[in-house]
Design a protein that fits this description.
Blueprint (H helix, E strand, L loop, with lengths): L1 H32 L2 H37 L3 H28 L1 H7 L7 H13 L1 H16 L3 H25 L3 H26 L17 H32 L2 H37 L3 H28 L1 H6 L9 H11 L3 H16 L3 H27 L1 H25 L7
Helix pairs in contact: 1-2, 1-7, 1-8, 1-10, 2-3, 2-5, 2-6, 2-9, 2-10, 3-5, 3-6, 4-5, 5-8, 6-7, 6-8, 7-8, 9-10, 9-14, 9-15, 10-11, 10-13, 10-14, 11-14, 13-16, 14-15, 14-16, 15-16
């Protein structure tokens, strides 16, 4: 069982981390070869990118869970029909989102909190990313489905191809051609195209996949089942964007542009840790859904235990690296002579306390979704991703000023951890330990 767990979870963690490198690499190149303000512009635009990914997660994770359950029940035609329907529907949605992003870039930038000083750069970055929206959304969907298809190793290969392409193109466009934000955005978009082509080849051009495109009447009512199951992971993905949006508004009011620059660095680190935890969650979901379909609670319980131990290790590792290597981490984005350097170091260390609890909440609602408990999963994810974190931000910043801003995620994660424990205890019969 442990061997199977590692086969799914380790590739999932790696692929999620590498996937996050796309925007991380942009940030490092822009910070070092363009300007700090350009870095802040990417930070402000980040919620648009996470919102784009969250749409893919909503459909892909839910469909992956349903397809894995059908596979466990040996309902192969229903499994393939769901795969066909979801791929076509998501492709159409992706095109619509791309058009909206390109044509409405300025209103989106203003909504995200861009001030006069940063507006033009934020609009430019969003418009270029929007041109590649289809590839962002559909390639991520294929990456999730590859794990459910039993090929987690291929998901790593695909995202690594994209990451390497992104790094090489950033070096070419930003450093050599001096294209600034335009070059960074183009590098990210083109890299997504390569990732899409690799994943599409698996499903369209090989006979290895268990999922196939089939003819038949689509059961659109299936989305009543798919969307609630994908909603928690969608909110998890979207939560990074919502948090950045809320923090940007509060920081802009209390600190100003220098605070936005500092938070853009923290947001990159937060996303990296969140993606590692999400990798555990998404890695175990196909297995849990499969055994849920077979009504094998014992194996579900074993997977649950492995996942808990896994996030404890990741939490301690993340926290330790941040505390011992803070100057080096911040130095990757900001010059040590910059006025924001030491302020960012202190803020990042305070923010990192939340990483000790974050993973437990992420895998809790992942497990609840996998055993078809979408309501409980939704409450946890929307709490930590939106409602509780925003309330904590307002209260903590009112009570403790700037330090309260950086400590508010810890308060939010603690509250949601209590909810997670209560819900999992209620569903202990489905998740036998």
């Amino acid at each position: 069982m442990l061997k199977q767990y590692l086969r799914f979870v380790v590739p999932s963690i790696i692929s999620m981390l590498v996937f996050n490198i796309y925007t991380l690499v942009d940030g490092i190149f822009v910070a070092n070869f363009v300007s700090d303000k350009a870095l802040a512009a990417i930070g402000i635009a980040t919620p648009y990118i996470t919102a784009t990914f969250s749409i893919s997660v909503l459909f892909s994770v839910g469909a992956s869970i349903v397809m894995s359950i059908y596979r466990g029940q040996k309902e192969l035609h229903l499994m393939n029909l769901t795969f066909t329907m979801n791929t076509v529907v998501l492709s159409v949605i992706a095109i619509v989102i791309s058009i909206i992003g390109f044509t409405q870039a300025e209103p989106i930038a203003l909504f995200l909190g861009a001030n006069e000083e940063l507006l033009a750069d934020v609009v430019l970055y969003i418009r270029i990313i929007a041109l590649f929206g289809f590839f962002f959304i559909v390639s991520y969907s294929f990456e999730v489905l590859l794990k459910a298809d039993g090929y987690p190793e291929k998901s790593i290969q695909g995202v690594c191809i994209g990451a390497i392409t992104n790094i090489l193109l950033d070096a070419l466009f930003v450093v050599y051609f001096h294209w600034g934000l335009i070059g960074a955005a183009l590098a990210t978009g083109i890299a997504q195209c390569f990732t899409f082509l690799f994943f599409a080849y698996h499903f369209f051009c090989t006979k290895n996949s268990h999922f196939h495109f089939v003819k038949g009447s689509w059961h659109l009512k299936e989305y009543r089942r798919i969307l609630p199951l994908g909603l928690s992971e969608c909110i998890n993905e979207c939560s990074a964007g919502v948090m950045i949006l809320a923090f940007n508004y509060q920081i802009k009011t209390m600190i100003g542009t220098s605070g936005l620059i500092s938070f853009s660095v923290i947001a990159y680190i937060f996303n990296l840790v969140l993606m590692a935890m999400s990798g555990v969650s998404q890695g175990i979901q196909p297995m849990i859904s499969y055994y849920h379909g077979k009504e094998d609670q014992k194996r579900i319980g074993m997977i649950h235990k492995y996942a808990r131990f896994n996030v404890i290790l990741l939490s301690i590792l993340s926290f330790g690296i941040i505390w011992f290597f803070t100057p080096q981490i911040v130095g990757g984005f900001l010059d040590k002579e910059a006025t924001e350097f030491f302020f960012t170091m202190d803020a990042l260390r305070l923010y990192s306390f939340s990483f000790l609890i974050l993973g437990h909440n992420v895998i809790s609602y992942g497990i609840l979704s996998a055993v078809e408990c979408p309501k409980q999963s939704f409450v946890i994810s929307v709490g930590r991703g939106m409602i509780v974190i925003i309330a904590s931000l307002w209260i903590m910043s009112y009570l403790f000023g700037a330090n309260g801003i950086w400590l508010s995620p810890l308060v939010s994660e603690c509250i949601c951890l209590v909810l997670s424990i209560l819900f999992l205890y209620q569903k202990r019969r489905l998740i036998h330990e």
